[in-house]
Amino acid sequence: FVAIIVVTWTVTDPVNVTKLFALGGVAGGAFAVVLGFGAKELWRSSKALVVLVGLFLLASVNAIINSSGPLTQNIYGAYGRNTAFLAYLLLVFVILSVVVLRTAKSFTTLIYGLFVAGVVNVVYCGWVITFGDFLPWNNPYGNILGTFGNPNFVGAFLGLFAASLVAYSFKSGLHIAIRVLSVIIFGVSVIEIIDSSAIQGRVVVAAGLAIVGFYLVRSKFNDALFQVGYVVVISIGGVFALLGALQIGPLTKYIYKTSVSLRGEYWQAGWNMGADHPLTGVGFDTYGDWYRRARDTQALILPGPETVTNAAHNVPFDVFAFGGWPLFISYLGILALSVIAIIKVTLRTRAYDPIFVTLTTAWVCYQLQSIISINQIGLAVWGWLFGGALIAYEIATRPAGDSDESTNSTAPKGRRVVKKKQSETIFSSTLIAGIGAVVGLLLASPPYSADAKWRSATTSQNAGLVEEALKPGYLNPENSSKYANASQLFEGSKLYDLAYKYAKIGVEFNPDSFDAWRVLYLVSKSTPEEKTLALENMKRLDPNNPNVLG
Known about the structure:
The chain is mainly α. The chain has helices at residues 16-45, 47-66, 71-76, 85-98, 104-131, 151-169, 176-196, 199-220, 224-245, 252-255, 258-276, 287-294, 315-348, 354-370, 377-396, 429-460, 463-470, 480-492, 496-509, 514-522, 528-541.
């Protein structure tokens, strides 16, 4: 649901605010059920995860308290991203909800969910390539967007989906018709990945297939020599791919893009933010406010002084920038638990386990995407979902001697799962899930509500409605981008007093917004003193740029 939902008619951002809203309902409902029926099991079997998640949330609060950025931006995120504290809190709800699953049916349901989202995107992208896009959204890329609003994101998702589809298609006893259909869907997915021009999609699908190949070789050959040989060959291929990304070797024309070089500067800026604020970071989704200050001087050459970004294009570096070492270490600790689960299950058996291999493939593919691209809710939900599923699967498939709990016949052959008795309650799980979903939707609704109100106001061409849409409130949180856009809109409509009014409100709301100061400098009603002050602040926020006015 989170991955495929897109709303194009009522909001200016058809992807991010809608996916945050959807995540609120899904995560809230799932976590409510765990609190009602699985809290004891969660603590009993996953203490390490609960502790690390607790530390992650404490570090998050510490980052917010110490951030110079606006509180609403720290909670709801910057416009076009919405990957701030609320998004991470909901993703935490996801991983804590899935980690208590124990039956094979539950894990296959998660996998089928991925396949449904994948097929929807394959069909939609195929339609766009063949007939054109039927969704009325602005597409400056000229490539397929899928339900992610960006060719890079849909390319990465299709890579994750295609590799996972291959992993599951090796399940024994699978009907030949399903295998043939899987091959066809895989082929179409690869064509669409190429059409998206997303290098990360090609990298992700190649890495995913390499993982599947490893587990197939391991299941077929007992001699370790075959496994070592396979790893060596794949490693050599990986080295050539890395060299290609650095414009070295025969794979350069297939892998290298100018954006690859730019990512190094974005990563460096994110690292600088965390290193300069090691205990607190700079706050959630404030990367864009700090980029000009944190970038190295060589970034003024490439990508150039006027090329800026509001994300590190690397999720771990984003996390480091947001909250410094406390947030970064706790985040890596959560990832480490999934890695440990993968290692444990891998060492436990040589047989090819389609559920485990699919979960592993999907999770690793997401993590690979996360270190070379921007965080996006529609993609991130799979990383946290399958990360928790891997931890749960390791617990569910432990040998019977490791625990005194009963087994369940739905477990894969040679495996066991825990059958957990639910305590009697006057509330049904459906009711509790519904209540949790409503709470989650209420938590995640402000950005969506504000964006819908803003779109309605700007399309009305009514200054009074635009001003009404700028009034702060719970369902209408303040936003730097909105203030800047409003001021420019009023200036262009020759409503100079209103342009000046909201330019001043913009810098008061977020004194660290470079664009807010630039708008104040440019509006015609600004006094000479205010223009001087605006120029001083632009130089403060972009200290290495000799020409902050461009």
